[in-house]
Amino acid sequence: MTSDTGASHISSRDNPLLKDLRKLAQDPGAYRKLGRIWLEGDHLCRAALARSVKPAIAVFSESFWPKAPAEWSIGAIKTVVVADSLLRDVSGLESPAPMGFVLDVPARPELLPDAPSVVLDRLQDAGNAGSILRSAAAFGFAQVIALKGTAALWAPKVLRAGMGAHFGLRLIEGVDADVLDSLRVPLVATSSHRGDWLHKADLPHPCAWLMGHEGQGVSAALEARASHHIRIAQPGGEESLNVAAAAAICLHASGAALLAE
Amino acid sequence: MTSDTGASHISSRDNPLLKDLRKLAQDPGAYRKLGRIWLEGDHLCRAALARSVKPAIAVFSESFWPKAPAEWSIGAIKTVVVADSLLRDVSGLESPAPMGFVLDVPARPELLPDAPSVVLDRLQDAGNAGSILRSAAAFGFAQVIALKGTAALWAPKVLRAGMGAHFGLRLIEGVDADVLDSLRVPLVATSSHRGDWLHKADLPHPCAWLMGHEGQGVSAALEARASHHIRIAQPGGEESLNVAAAAAICLHASGAALLAE
Q1: Which residues belong to any copy of the tRNA/rRNA methyltransferase SpoU type domain (chains A, B) (predicted)?
Q2: How many CB pairs under 8 A join A and B?
Q3: Which helix (DSSP H) or strand (DSSP E) does residue A243 occupy?
Q4: Which residues pair with A172 in a beta bridge?
Q5: With respect to CATH, is domain A117-260 assigned 2.40.160.20?
Q6: What is the pLDDT of residues A150-182, one digit of tens each?
Q7: Which of A23, A51, B84, B86 is 20 to 30 Å from A165 by CA-CA measure?
Q8: Where in chain B is the domain with CATH 3.40.1280.10?
Q9: Contact assessment for residue A86 and residue A150, using Cβ atoms and an 8 Å cutoff
């Protein structure tokens, strides 16, 4: 796409859109206030397009804009071209990307009572949250329910770690544990110290896996709601696993059990 | 420990030890030049002590020092107390810890030809490297071999993600793939697109798992050395998994196979 017909150019640092982009890129919770998401770099933008997401704004650096594939701006409601140094300034990354999309925050989807699900209970780390979303999508889980106190799922760091998984999942965030009452699939709690060994367990399918806080694990109240309790054998005797590693193991076991049927 | 007998105090920002600590805390490869490692926070320091590591220097903030457990300085060759604001300045963390250890970089251990192992092939991300070390230790792997081009394993971010696993593993880093010739255990390559399905595979034990670069996977040359090739079924149809998630799944499957014997 070498023509820039229809694109507006930004060359002032004080432009209001740039101010918003800086907030969205650098403050994990800013999207909740601004109602928009910043998707940086071609990999994530392609993943969004592949799922028919329509960007509100396609943003390009001045030097990248002439070589940008047409599909990246054709789908967008608006196209904006930003001076290179200003767009670099927006990014929270060490290697800023020369393009990105602004998306409207998706409306919260209805909870599917029978879908294979993952429940995040006050998970703190953005990288862990993104990695779990990626594993959930890979292993055929349809929805992720993030209880209040969990990292903001549409934050840039979670989006990067999710590698596009966000667009293939129903993401229900900021909700109380009471919403779990409407799930008809059994709740399976992971624990570092109790329950059946995963490698011997008969896993229910579909089910909803509970993944807990990095330090504290799944809360006692939530554990009490679960019908199944699972732990992962650690022959090396370490005290615990990273929660995203534990989630990968459990979600794979669920997926593999299904494949073996 | 309320006495500070034997501790030296630092109150100048230009103190040479503080300069070194800042480098060690903030530059992932600094330990290779300086020959020392910075271990920040009580969790990692306890993990080192539990494995009988003797710190070269125990470092405390002035306000924390009076309440620091005696064991933390008794084992150290030297104890240093630093003005609170200066120690905060050392840290690369959002919430700097009030204590840490300086360790000498361990001598490179001999490679054990028959040990269950993990081989890292140009793995880039520090968080992934640390998470894989943690999973390796949990699932009974004895050594990790990091080929040239892999993230520096004793960097602060890898240490934090490893959560103490470093001290229970033989870590052999910065080596050429030729060292793998001396392994007598079979090499098992992970792939996103070829090989046997993990959930149906007969895994050799002990073995050495090859985990590759985040974008490129295991190199073709290394894949060609492997006697087994394994991939992970992804019923959700995503293109690939995070490498630390894939490693967790594979290493757990190896460990579980052993437990089931």
Answers
A1: 117-252
A2: 125
A3: helix A243-260
A4: A145
A5: no
A6: 999 999 999 999 999 999 999 999 999 999 999
A7: A23
A8: 117-260
A9: no
- Which of B46, B133, B135 to mutate to test binding with chain A, by most A CBs within 10 Å of its CB? B135
Nearest by CB: A248 against B139, B249, B258: B249
Res. A3: pLDDT tops 80: no
Q: Which of B144, B231, B238, B250 to mutate to test the interface with A (most CBs of A within 10 A)?
A: B238
Please tell me which of the candidates B232, B236, B246 has its beta carbon nearest to residue A140. Answer: B236
- B64 CA: distance to closest CA in chain A (Å): 22
Our CA-based measurement puts residue B44 at a distance from the nearest CA of chain A, in whole angstroms, of 13
Q: Is the pLDDT of residue A203 over 80?
A: yes
- In Å, how far from its chain's centre is CA B154? 6
User: From residue B164, how far is each of A211, B136, B154, B242 by CA, in Å?
Assistant: 22, 12, 11, 22
Strands B117-121, B208-212: parallel, antiparallel or unpaired by DSSP?
parallel
CB contact under 8 A, A131 and B199: no
- B7-104: which CATH topology? 60s Ribosomal Protein L30; Chain: A; (3.30.1330)
* Cβ within 8 Å, pair A138-B234: yes
- Start-end of CATH 3.30.1330.30 domains in chain B: 7-104
CA distance B157 to B93: 9
Contacts of B249 in chain A (CB under 8 A): 248-249, 252
Structure tokens belonging to residue A207 = 């089910």
Q: Is B168:B51 a contact under the CB 8 Å cutoff?
A: yes
ipTM rounded to 2 decimals:
0.93
